[in-house]
Amino acid sequence: MDRMLYTAMSGAKNSMDQQSIVSNNLSNVSTTGFRAQLQAARSVPVQGEALLATRTSAVTTTPGSDFSQGPVEFTGRTLDVAMQDDAWMAVQADDGTETYTRRGDLQIDSDGVLLSVGRPVIGEGGPIAIPQGAQVSIGADGTISAIPEGVGPEALVEVGRIKLVTPEAGALTRGEDGLFRAPLNAEGGQGVLPADENAKLVSGALEGSNVSAVDAMVSMIDVARRYDMQMKVLSTADENAQRANGILSIQG
Questions:
Q1: pLDDT per residue rounded down to tens, the chain (252 residues)
Q2: Which of 61, 69, 193, 230 could tie 165 with a disulfide, CB 3.0–4.6 Å?
Q3: How far apart are CA 38 and CA 21, in angstroms?
Q4: In sequence order, what E strands does 25-156 have?
C-alpha cells in the first residue's frame, strides 16, 4: 500500500482532533469565565524506507489554554464576582481536591453552602456557609459579609473569605471537568496554591468567555477544508492503487 495513505491519515486525524477543540470553544462562547483551549500540530519527517523530503506526518501537541482576560459585564447581582487581573477562585472538585476557576456566578444551596456551578467555594477554613435568608455582600478582597434575616444593618457579620490565588504563568492545567489544577506536589499528590492577599475581585460583575465567536467560526471552516484536502489525498491514493492493479492484471 502506498505510504502516502499514512501521511494523509495522520493529517486527517489531526484535523478531526482540532475540529473537536474548536467546536468545544465555540459551544462555550457564552460560558462565564471560560478559557479557550489551544491546539497545535507539528510536522514529523517519515523515517525508514518511506523517507522522502516531502513526506511528513502530523503529530498533535497540546499547548494548553488561552489565559487572556475575558470581557467583564456588570450585572448588579450581589453573588456575581469577576476576578481581577490574574486572580483565580478556589473551589472544591468532586473528588475533594482544591481546584481553580474564573467562573463567578455563585449560588447558595439549601444547606447554605456557597457554590460555583454546583461546587463548594473554598474559604480560609474550607467550604463557606452562608446563613439562610441573609443579605450577602462580597468585598474586593473576597470577604463575605451577611446581615441575618429579620435584623438591621448593625448586625452585619463576616461569614468567610473566598480564597483567591494568583498562579504563575502556565502553572495551571485544565482537567476533564473544566476546572484548573496546580502542579503535583513532591509526594505526587494534587498541589495547592497559597492564598494571595493582594488578589482582588469585582462584586456585582461577571467575566465572560475569552473565545471569539468570529475567530472560532473561521477556524472551524479552515479545519474542515484541510480535512477535505486530506480525504482527497486518500481517495487519490486509492485510485492510483486500483489503476496499478489494473495494469498488473493486463501484463499478467
A1: 556 777 787 778 888 888 989 999 999 999 999 999 988 777 777 776 656 666 676 677 767 899 999 999 999 999 999 999 999 999 999 989 999 999 999 999 989 999 998 999 999 889 999 988 889 999 999 999 999 887 878 778 988 999 999 999 888 999 888 899 998 887 777 889 999 999 999 999 999 999 999 999 999 999 999 889 888 888 888 787 778 777 777 755
A2: 193
A3: 8
A4: 37-45, 56-65, 72-74, 81-83, 88-92, 98-101, 106-108, 114-116, 119-120, 122-123, 126-127, 135-138, 143-147
The number of angstroms, rounded, from the C-alpha of 135 to the middle of its chain's C-alpha atoms is: 33
**Could you tell me if 149 and 48 lie in one domain?**
no
Do 105 and 178 lie in a common domain? yes
Contacts 24+ apart (CB under 8 A), 16-19: 16/227, 17/60, 18/60, 18/219, 18/223, 19/220, 19/223, 19/224, 19/227
Q: Which cell goes with 81?
A: 464576582
3-state secondary structure of 22: helix
Q: Are 87 and 193 in contact (CB under 8 A)?
A: no
Q: Is residue 247 part of a domain?
A: no
Question: Is residue 81 within a helix (H) or strand (E), and if so which, with residue range?
Answer: strand 81-83
Residue 25 lies in domain: 1-67+210-241
Residue 43 exposure: Cα atoms within 13 Å on the Cβ side: 7
Q: How far apart are the first and last CA of the chain?
A: 20
Domain count, the chain: 2
